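Is cobalamin placement plausible here? Inputs below.
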Amino acid sequence: MKTKFSYNIAVINLTNGIKTIGAENVCTYLRSRGFRNTFLIHLFFKYGQGITNPGYLKSLIELLGSLNPDVIGLSLMSIGFNAAKNLSSLLKKHFPDTPLVWGGIHPTLVPEESIKHCDMLIRGEGEEPFYELVSAAMDGKSAACIENLWLKDNKRIIRNKLRPYMDNLDALPYPKIDWERTYVFERHRFRTVTTKLYNKYGSMRGTFYDIIASRGCPYVCTYCSNCVLNELQESRGKVMRFRSIRNIIEELHYVKRTFPNTAGINFQDDAFGALDIGYLKEFAHYYKNEINIPFHIRIIPSMISEEKIKVLKEAGLASAVLGLQGSDRINRYVYKRDMSRKRFIEIARILRKYNIAGRYDIITRNPYSKKEDIVETINTLSAIPKPYFLLEFPLAFLPETALTKKAIDDGIISPELNYYNSRGGLGDGKEQFPLLAVIRTMTPYTPSGLIRFFLRIHGRGWAGFLIRLYSALVYAPERRIIEIIIRNYRITYIVQRILMKTLQKKSTAA
Ligand code: B12
Ligand code: SF4
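Reply from A.M.:
I modeled the complex. Tokens:
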């Protein structure tokens, strides 16, 4: 008879990152409830191709053979669906009697398709349901009534209802790395993660730490999974939940102790700015006094104000991501998104006023975009203070979103095409106006006058050659240098520190 101490659970993380809050949360929770032998294995795959290295899979099977798991969990996004499907059939071949449980955003959104490839799946927040499942499995009890769980019972599928979201996020332990029970593939086999390996595979060479202070987003942009999640969760409690400030600060103290290289804290919250000003002021006070590491956030235009940005700047806000996504027409009618060109420019100017680096997202290759929409987006981008970071994401038709359903209805994509993962979920559409795309890419570091000139001439026969020549000879080298600096965030940080210290010494001497 197994006990919690001898029961082995292996969670495979197929989200292509060594820092993955969801799977880490689930593992930390199980360990905190006594299942100390909960192992987390990070697996990487190539977009659209899955796991291509045969040595990788052989080594995974060997590792699992030695861990002897009683339950195997798999954490995936839609982008990992093809890889998960193939991996799952391999796992079932080698471990036919070990229950295989899928969890994460993909099985949450697409359970009917997912359940075909695993024995069970957990939809939504996984900590509590997965704990209930492994406890039942260990005790030989039925799991048939566990809310959020879907399971195959002979040929029947049991589809349990969703439970309400967790209201008190502080009740969950924050994700902690268990060095002896976390694995990554390195030099021909899976090895336990060391500080050196964490730095090698972690975000920005292990200098960035991802954290979330809240869960949920009250908006329902048509391309985003939140429009589906919020519908699923309807009338099952609050969507937006916040951790207490003390709870966040405690996690960050743990981060400073465990990962002393940390040079940036990356708040991955969908809606960080939703926090009210009182909360932000208190947060800023403790963050500045106790943590004092530059941090980064994502903001939603309607939830942010100059006052909030000022408070956050004082706490150490270094950069903010803001989604412009498209023109006013596209945002209003296609994405149903609370964003306008005017508001975007306003916020970008406030960010510059407080010397906060702006990182602006736009969605490209949208088949609903017309030429005027792309020109408007370029004009908006060239109206904000330069330089800035521009992140261009080709539109990915994520499963079950309102936009994907619309595109299927409009005959733009085919439901059979499995569109969202055919090229790794990164979007398959073509640039409708390739020359405009070249101009748009140049907006972050090119004078607005020149961008306007390019827009004026781009329709003429010879203009393509001129614009591409400028892009190759001037813009590309400029961008390359800036990217090297950004990638080596740690170097930038060290240089900044040295400069600051030298300046401080000089001013003291003076
Ligand atoms: C951080 C983040 C990233 C990070 C890190 C990803 C990582 N390795 O974890 C980065 C920046 C790298 C990233 C990249 C991308 N991301 Co992203 N990302 C997020 C974000 C903002 C937060 C994820 C998170 O930590 N959530 C908090 C945790 C607590 O929730 P969770 O992950 O869902 O986990 C819970 C449950 O799902 C479940 N669970 C999770 N795993 C398991 C495993 C088991 C066994 C069980 C039982 C349960 C379980 O329990 C967890 C705890 O409750 C989400 C949006 C969001 N708010 O979730 C988007 C999101 C996950 N990303 C998304 C997308 C589309 C992408 C990209 C494809 C974007 C792109 N076009 O390039 C890339 C692909 C990256 C890749 N895998 O290769 C979509 C995914 C949609 C989908 N259908 O798959 C999301 C949902 C955004 C959105 N709102 O649409 N992303
Ligand atoms: S505001 Fe951002 S996170 Fe919220 S629904 Fe829209 S795209 Fe998704």
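Short version: The chain has two domains: 9-171, 202-431.
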